[in-house]
Every structure is written in C-alpha cells, then in structure tokens.
Amino acid sequence: METLDLVKKAKNGDKEALLGLIMDKKADFYKLAFVYMKNEEDAMDALQDMIVILYENISSLKKNESFYSWSKTILVNTCKTKLKKNKKIIFIEEIKEEVAEDYFENPVDKFVLDKYLSTLSLKHQEVIKLRYYLDYDYETISKVLKIPLGTVKSRLNAGMKILKEALGGEYIE
Amino acid sequence: MNKLDKLLNEEKENLDRLSIPEDMEERLRSALNNVPSKKKKRFQIRVAAIIIVLLLSYNIDTLAFYSKKLIGYDDIMNGTLQELNEMGKGQVINKSHTFKDGVSVVLDGVMLDDNNMILFYTINAPHGDVQNKNINISIGGIFSQYSYSGSGIASPDGKTESWVINTHEVPMFFEKTISLNINYQKDDGNYEEGKITFKLDRNQAVGKSIKFNINKKIELGSRSISVDTMVASPTSTIVRGKIQNILELGIDIIKDKRIRPLEIEMELLADGRKIDHQGGGLSTDNKGSSFYITFDALPQDTKNIELRLVSFAGDYDVKEAIELEKGKGTRFKVLEQDVIINAVYEENGSTYINFTTEDTVQLSRVYLNIDGKRHELQETIYGSEEKVAKDNKVKILYTRTMRFEGTGDKLELDIQRVRYNKVYDELIYKE
User: Which of A143, B130, B326, B383 could form a disulfide with B400 if both were Cys (CB 3.0 to 4.6 A apart)?
Assistant: First the structure.
C-alpha cells in the first residue's frame, strides 16, 4: 500500500517520493544496472538517466502496481542505449587484470565464463544474466524485457545450450 | 550442480556482495534536481488548458454579473481565473452528492465561455486519505456527453479535502440541464455512482475576445499551410490554421507526397516585445490537418502586433532510390537536405552505411535494396556530432551508421520518408 501511495505522489510530481521508491529497492536497481554496464560509474550514470526518464514519464504509467517492472524496463533500455552510444565494447583481453581480483576463487573460471558469455548475442546474454545473476523468474524477465514468456524460455534454453557447448566437457557433466 | 551452474551461481553471489555506492541516493537526487520541476510544468499545462478555455471568443454580451467568490481554489487557479473569480464571474451551483462511506463531492461553481466549460468542485473525505480517493467526473446533457480536456487538483493537507478544476467541452447551445456523473472507485475496487444535476445559466459566461482574420497562405517548398485566425482574449492568444484540407490530404496520400507535421514554431510580438509561447497542438481528422498555437495574453494597450513563422518541422514522403557502392562515399540531396555517405562496408554478414546530415534531418523510413531485395533497417549506431559555422549560423552535423542485415553487390538506398526542421523566419501578419 505504501508503494502505491508513493507512486501516486510521484505521479503528482513529488521528486522525493520517486526517489524513495527507487531507494526502497536500491539493491535491485543497482544490480540490474551493474549487470548491463559492468562497472560502478556507468551503472550510476544509467541510474541517473533512468530516474530523470521516470520522472518525466511517470504520468504515462497506467497501472500503479506495475511501477517496478515499468521502471526496470526503462532502466534496461537506458543501459542498452548507453552501451550502444558509448560503443564501449570491452574486449575480453582488456579486462583480464580486473578479473583476477577477488571476484572468483578461480579467476580462470571467471575469465572463461565471461569470455563465452560475451560471445552470445545480447538477447541471450541478458536473459541468462537476469535469470542466474539476479534470480529473476521467467515472468519478471518477460515483464522487464517486454518479451513474451515463451521467448524468455526459448532464449534462455538456446543461450544455455550455446554456452554449454562452448564451454565443453568439464563444465556440463 | 554442474560446473556451469556453479559458475553462474558464484557470479550471482559476487553480485549480491556488491556494495551499493554510498552516494547513490545523493546522485539520484541531484539528477532529479537538475530536471525542471514538473509540478510547475504540469501546472503550466493546466493553466494553458484553462486559459484556452476562457479565451476563445465570446460573443455573448457579458452582463455585469456579480455572484459569489469561490474559496479554496487559489492554488490551482492561474492569475486570470483568479481575477475572474475575484470579480465573482461564473455561476455558483453549490450542490453535492454524498457516497455511502461519507465521501462527498460538492460542485461549487461553473464558468463557461464559447469554447469551454470549467467546473469547480471539492472532494471531501471525512475519514482522511482524500488524495487516494479515485473519483472520476463526466459531463452529460440530454443530448450528448461532453468530453473532458484537463484538470488541476490541490489538496493542501492531503487528508480530508481536495479542490479540483476540470475543463470540459462546451455543451450544445440548446442544453439547459447538465448532469455531473460521478464514478467513485472504492478501496475494495467496487464502484459507486453518483449524480449532480444543475441548470446552466448562459448569461453568466465569462470573457470577451477580439478575432483577427489572418487568412494567409505560406508556401513551404512544394506544399503550403494556411494561418486562418488569431483570437486574443484578456487571458490568452490563440492562432489557428490548416496544414492541409481533406482534399489536399487525399491527393497527397495518393501521390505519396504527404507531410506529417511535427511542429510549427511561431513568434508573436506586441509592440516589439515577445509574447510567451504557451503550447499548441496538431490534429488530423476528417476535415484535414489543422494546428493551433497558444500565446500569453496581449498587453492591454498593445498598438502593433506581429506574427512570424519561425520554423516548421515535418515528416515528408519522398521516393528516392540512391545507388551505393561498397567502399565508396557519395553525396546527394533529398528535399534539398544534404546527405553525405561517408562509407559503405560489410561486416559479419551485415551491410553498414556511415553517413552525415544536419542534426535536424532524419531518414524516418529507409530500406536497403540488396541485389533487388528489400532489407529493413536493423539499427542506427550513434556516431558523433560536429558544430560548424556557416553564414553566421551554427549548424550541427550528425554522423551515424545504419546497419542492414545481409550483403550483396548491388546496393540501393531506398528512402521513403524524410523528417526535417526548416527555419523560415517569415512575417505572417502585421497590424
């Protein structure tokens, strides 16, 4: 109920209410942005862009209960636009060193995963990341990415299949 | 759990451990604070709506009517409405409807002119939470329903009372009895309906305006628009015109020469002083395409007025096929707009075309015919912007890359529509 109150206030132009809505789920938003942007600076930039877009367009939100899936869709689109604009394709060779940090027990594994994930098309990558990294269920993915449930499943299956095949024997036994 | 699952899971755990930047809240807040406050913006829109309301011509002689001032609407009334209210213009109704749970709607008053009807009503919620009471109002007479065009709402304490100003279409001149249909959706989702009826007193309408017949045709390349009238009232000034009448529109569609207007920018000067632009709109219906532009009211003792066309942005039908060659640049004009093809190349099964135009130009519908087969545009990849000064004007050149799936030898860029903004700076009317 409190969420709905805040959405109503935000719709009336209350900036703090909108900020409150985002901060209530700040970890969700930050992680989602991070999954796409891969670093703090760009993730924060995307979040800043997102909140401005939300503010300017919240009056077009029809169902107040859908605020969170609506705003996440906008975040995802903002991230994608930014990725395209910056054309910031980080080649796997360049992030080798970063990878070796405390991220993984075994940096090689992380390296391998990243490398193969990055060979998948963005649409396959993103469903895998949302499903496995952020623990979203199929329905949430479908709402956030605005694609049918069946498509989520088929992309996930196809993506995982390619990933498994690419990684080969030892990863799939 | 196989190793892939384990890897994915570890990545998830890493992400969960990710610390959220401490300044996240501050950064988001500062981003928001950089946006002009919407409350104000929305208010202006409302005001504009209300002004439009009031404005339009008024042929009924206003009687020096005095009734009663409406109280509580100050927050949502613009200066003009306030003045009218101070003068006691309008019709006082003071009728209410109370729902089963005690929530009530009181229709305090109505203002009417030739173009709009404005309702002033309050919502009372004795048990609080008035902001979240979902109440919709519609207006009907005996013969028809009258559509709603905008509203302003204020609830200073957010608890028990809200003041609302709604703008509606003007009821037909023969309608006397008007009913306010109230649809109240309760917290449990159920609806309850209510009704307030009142007799409309047309002698109490407000406003008086002057109409200028402009009737000027402006050539825009091969097409033209006409500016028909300007109506200046004590509260605002509205310019109206036609972009195409239905016959021209039909011919244009048949000839594939349609213009879809996007924006018309005009400037209104009163004794050399610029009048604030408030808004406008474009519409296409069974009579053709028309537009209106709203400005603030003319100052009281204005002697000279001047109306100028500043620019016109539209989406134009074109049918241009440009042959391209891989590895070779070229340049051409579409509707007098320069398009420079910098590079055409293949990569990973796609054909890429890097090109430059002025930033106001957009190829809004474009295909690539590869060996005679039509391919759709997949994406446009953002490139760079460059400012160049030419003839004392700064132009922005925008370079980007289009990607089409597929490759082949014979390439033809099939441009179907172009969108651009043209600056005119032309005098439309002077008096």
Answer: B383
Kindly compute the dihedral angle of the four CA atoms of residues A119, A122, A125, A127, in this order, to the nearest 10 degrees: -160
Claim to verify: residue B332 and residue B376 sit in the same structural domain: yes
The answer to whether the Cβ–Cβ distance between B132 and A5 falls below 8 Å is: yes
Coil, strand or helix at B298: coil
User: Which CATH number is B235's domain given?
Assistant: 2.60.40.1640
Residue B155 amino acid letter: S
CB nearest B132 (choices: A8, A40, A48): A8
Tens digit of each residue's pLDDT (9 = 90 or more) over B126-174? 888 887 777 878 888 877 777 665 566 777 666 788 888 777 777 877 7
pTM of the model: 0.42
| DSSP 8-state code for residue B172 | P
Check CB contact under 8 Å for A55 and B11: no
Contact yes or no for B27 and A113 at CB 8 A: no
Q: How far apart are the C-alpha atoms of B408 and B133, rounded to whole Å?
A: 62
Same domain, B68 and B170: yes
Residues of A in contact with B20 (CB under 8 A): 26-27, 30
Q: Do B257 and B334 belong together in one domain?
A: no
* CA trace torsion B167, B172, B177, B179 (10° rounding): -40
Kindly state whether residue B185 falls inside one of the protein's structural domains.
yes
The string of DSSP codes covering B174-198 is T--EEEEEEEEE-TTS-EEEEEEEE
Q: What is the CATH number assigned to the segment(s) A1-89?
A: 1.10.1740.10
User: What is the Cα–Cα distance from B353 to B378, expressed in whole angstroms?
Assistant: 12
Per-residue pLDDT tens digits for A114-141: 767 777 788 888 899 899 888 888 888 9
Question: In terms of residues, how long is chain B?
Answer: 431
Please answer yes or no on whether A171 and B3 come within 8 Å at the CB atom. yes
Range of B392's domain? 318-420
* Cα B296 from Cα B293, distance rounded (Å): 10
Tens-place pLDDT, residues B168-223: 777 877 788 899 988 887 777 777 889 999 988 877 665 566 788 888 888 776 66
Q: Where are the alpha helices (DSSP H) in B24-129?
A: 24-33, 38-55, 79-86
List beta partners, residue B183.
Answer: B136, B193
Strand ordering across the sheet containing B191-199: B145-146, B134-140, B177-185, B191-199
Is the domain of B227 the same as that of B127? no
Contacts of B29 in chain A (CB under 8 A): 15, 19
Chain A residues touching residue B37 (CB < 8 angstroms) = 13, 15
Give domain limits for chain A. 1-89
Residues of B with CB under 8 A from a CB of A: 2-4, 7-12, 14-16, 18, 20-21, 24-25, 27-29, 31-35, 37-39, 41-42, 131-132, 379, 381-382
Preferred mutation among A3, A5, A11, A15 to probe B, highest tally of B CBs within 10 A = A15
Q: Do B104 and B180 have their domain in common?
A: yes
B75 contacts on A by Cβ (under 8 Å): none
